[in-house]
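User: Sequence in, structure out. Go.
Assistant: Echoing your sequence, followed by the structure tokens.
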Amino acid sequence: MNGKDLLLAAVRGEKTSRPAWLPFVGCHGGFLIGRTATEFLKSADLVVEGLKKAKELYRPDGLPIMFDLQIEAEILGCGLHWADQVPPSVTSHPLAEGKTLADLPELDESKGRLPIVVESLERLKKEIGADTALYGLICGPFTLALHLLGNDIFLQMYDDEEGVLKIIDYCADIGIKMADIYLEHGADVVAAVDPMTSQISPEHFESFVTPAMNKIYDHIRARGGLSSIFVCGDVTRNLEVMVRTSADCISVDEQIDMAKLRELCSAAKKSFGGNIKLTAVLLLGDEDDTKLEVLDILSKVGEQGFILAPGCDLPYAVPLKNLKAVASIVHDEYEREAAKSLKAKGMDSFDDITLPDYKAARTVLIDVITLDSTSCAPCQYMMEAVQKAVAAAGIVCYINEHKIKVRQGIGMMVKLGVKNLPTICINGEVRFASIIPDLKTLVAAIKDAAEK
């Protein structure tokens, strides 16, 4: 059984002889070949070169073709901002600017960057597809609806439920078109990546998201394909409803209890994947940190229906040695045994990082703890919500984003007592953890802080 066969067996929920290994190499593929994220995501030649390099270095069982949740949004009329080390971010929302669904462009494989995706997939299928499972990642229906409508969707879920359902159903149809493109050109698994579902309640998930997701997953199954739901962010409250979707596999990030997920997926006869820490371990840690992290995850997940993966898209400049360390644990039973003798380092106390004197401040101080608002959709939309609320409140505020891609950001997260991402703190107090409040609620919280 080669790596591809092993990974697909795991997705089908079967027992495997070793952990299946799926590094989510997105923009990191550009880093491997000395090119920017923008260059990488706009060139089939560079995508193929970067992913082949990742295969050589990390010995994966599977790889995604392109980790960019803005491909569909770009085709449908959203403006994008490009950067050197992260995927593009959405800067405009056509449905919030007066357009209707009927006004949006048609999506087919000739549009936008889909010709790059198709060429990359076809070439990689021939060159590495015999022993490497290839994943097609599509933007999940709720996150795509956010791209099209913006943060207004949260209020409209209460004020115009029928209208929002119509938009999300449209996005499900876009997801089906994307799934067909991937399947027709050789993808082995299609994963709907829907990070914005971390921002809603289980009730809203079942009402607004489950029907749209099942529409996509049922279509993939009818075509003989395998599917996965992948949600970045703290979806602890939504795990049970995620498992009840018709997806074959449930993939999550580092904030999720893998023992709990294993229990839920085992009962539902589904596979599951995750959830190596992106920043504290893979980006900022060393090889020993990485090996200990992987061993800890493996101790909780068992040998059936599990895919080892990072919690989300790999940061651009993850040290190669750390991902190679994951590969050594995955492929070498002796390395797994040897790593058990490693001792964890003491926790960083961050004594050199001090919080502002919030009580003495003459303005309202708003700290937003994020992964990175330029690459994480929930983080981006939370920052947008804060900026709009500050403007609406008419109060002098100081907004500071703390990205946990750097030690300073992790230190602020620890000092403020933040447990989930993204989170809004106002004057040093955690106010909105892993939830984007509506404009009225956030404005009221800012005004309340100003009066104290």
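User: And one key feature?
Assistant: Residues 40 and 47 are 6 Å apart (CA to CA).
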